[in-house]
Write a structure and sequence with these properties.
The complex is a heterotrimer of chains A (about 375), B (about 250) and C (about 240). Chain B is mostly helical and about 250 residues long. Chain B contains ten helices and no strands. Chain C has helices at about 1-10, 25-60, 60-75, 75-90, 90-115, 120-130, 135-145, 145-170, 175-180, 185-215, 220-225. Chain C is elongated, with a radius of gyration of 21 Å.
Chain lengths: ~375, ~250, ~240
Amino acid sequence: MNTADTAHSEGPSAFAQAAELELRGVSKRYAGQREPAIRDLSFTVPAGDVCVLVGPSGSGKTTTMRLINRMISIDGGDILLGGRSVLEREPRELRREIGYVIQQIGLFPHLSVAENIATVPSLLGWPKERTRARVRELIELIDLDPVEMDDRYPAQLSGGQRQRVGVARALAADPPLMLMDEPFGAIDPINRVRLQDEFLRLQDKVKKTVVFVTHDIDEAIKMGDRIAILREGGVLAQYDTPREILTHPADDFVAQFVGADRGLKRLALTTLAELELLEPDRPAADAAANGALSLPRDTSVRDAVSLMLTANGEPVRVLDGEGHVEGLVTLAVVEHLLADEAAAPPAPAADGSSPQIEPSSQGAR
Amino acid sequence: MGLDSPALAEHVVAAAEPVIPNYGAQSSSCVVHNHLFCTDWVSHNWGPVLWPALRGHILLALVAVSIGFVISLGLALVAHRYGWLERPTMIVTTILYTIPSLALFELLVAPVGPNVYSAEIALVSYTLLILFRNILTGLRSVPDEVLDAAEGMGMSRRQALLRVELPLALPSIIAGLRIAVVTIIALATIVYTIYNEGLGVPIHTALGEGPFKTELIVAGGLAILLALVADALLVLVQRLLTPWTRARAA
Amino acid sequence: MHEFVEAFRFIAHNGAIAGEPGLPTLTHLSLETLRVSAIGLAISIVIALPLGVWLGHLHRGSFAAINLGNIGRALPSLAVLAIGDAFFGLGLTVVEVALVVLAVPPIITNAYLGVDGVDRDLVDAARGMGMSGLQIVRRVELPLSVSPLFAGVRTAAVFVVSTTTIASLAGFSGTLGDVIANETSYHFSGVLGAAICVAALALAVDGLLTLLQRALTPRGLLLADRDHAAAPPAEAALAAPTS
């Protein structure tokens, strides 16, 4: 796809560097409420990472997100974007540098798709040619046809298309940070998976710093480089990579929130290729000819376990790209993986996250 | 004066049959017998009588709707910002609207005088209720998430108003303009009672003579036509300015 | 200002002018205005309201209902009266016909939009409960469209009072318009006095109708509407006030 190259090329349409986002002791209390909505929240999102804010309703995840672009005022603490405090910036100027995607999208019904995407560049006073080129580039990036979309209106788009246009609109001025509040929440489950995959592909190309809010732990695990689990009252329960959270949940709340099947969830994060496979006991032969069970190496371990449970102890062959047997896998291999991980000390958490409690018996089962 | 002088001939004709106004030296049997529509009378009097009346009428209506729109827009924008203003504004404009035109004209003549100002003040008053209500409704109909997105993208209040709220309020605004324009064009036929302009003038003259059917029908018909044409024009304007309202799902 | 004082004196004297006996009193003229208006309004309501409600219930005939409203707005009442005069001479019947022609459009348009605009889900639920068409109209659609219906009736009422007054300009006598059209006899103070009476009359009729509307509005809706000026659909609602 040549658009990938355009995205990375030098020149005015190259994607700028993403910025690091740091929350330092942030707190927010609404007037008339006894408890603060956010209480002394601190964590850092490295530049180019997707940080997912997840938690039950009332945990303040959307509030936190809206504090970052100052749609809500900060009561205590500070938020630094690229090292600069957001409190020093003029709010409207700040927001033009932050991509903002909300659940209902909020596309302007009276503007065409192209005009919608061009909104922030136009607010920033970009020259027409540059804007036009940029809009074109973005429409292609989200897999739509620029010619068609030029005079299409939001009312004429499907829900999934509107979502993608919303994301493109947020990317238009090439902001160093993107805020996304349950962007796929209003989409049906089948299209939601598609949109999630597309977003991950996009993020691969553009590498923005993203703060992503969701109430769905599975979405958080899929989308996040790091996950911040918030408790009721805006308290940070754990801030870590998905793998760490699933392997070493910080406390009972987190363990319960990620679900009793976190072992399986954790397996979904690994593919067969990453396992220490057993040596094949027969010469590398065409697996299909023997009628044995086999799976490609990029299958998730979770799916593999699913298959293994029907194999009644038979090892499953792992195939490489050409269909040759690379190795064998059994349930025992998987158990070893989980046991090793659970026994290992928890990986050092990212800066400023909450202290890890030592791995309890909640490790591998 | 000789017997065959034009002046005398005029007197003779005038004395004979029902006196037909604005007629001039010649008579035709159509006019004299007061048929429904005498084309010769119309072509004769278009220049001196009908066209000036039409022109004056258009001017009256245009000025009234323009001023009314500016005032209503201001009031609506303020009421949009400070919601408590809506109630009192509605009450005042409703009262103005309810007073019958004839009465309002006369009430204004006392302080202002029988001139164009009274006429325009009255006409403007009748536009206020409709325009204020429609503009405010239009502004309020903008979906919340669209406003949230606009603010989140860094638009100032003024930018959001100009780029998002007002354009989205346009369908409602233009609907109000249509009603106001048609209303005022119809109302302006009464203006003649205090100020000698508009299509009411030939209607009044015609009523006093006979009544003179051709003039009645033509003047009245012109007022109706004017209103319908103005309405159609505004529909066209709305189509041009709001292309997105007709875009249906692909 | 002086004129207003004179006008109130005129009203206080019930329209009598020194030295000119035999002039009809203001009371008489006002009552006559009300009578003519009431007849016109009643006929218009009887014709237009059921028709508008029925069309709205069926969700048919929107083009007719709405464009009738547009055309009705465009008709200058003076022109209508004048044309009636030209063809038939100006008796009570002709005046009433003119009143009805002008009052029907706002009533029918607003009735149509009001009933048509009732939440379809509610009508669906009612049908699902086994209500017949007539029952749906009576129990669901009518109570929920009281506001737009009355908006149409109130507009028509103002129309009718105004046009009755204007009828004097066209030559129909007996109403308050007689005074307004006759400055020579009544002098400006008289004209002004009559104008004040007409204004008061129109506001009184509107006020009465508003009270009636409030009485007929179901309590649940009153609670919900408390913060709103009861606003009819923007598109059609108020047609021309007077013309």
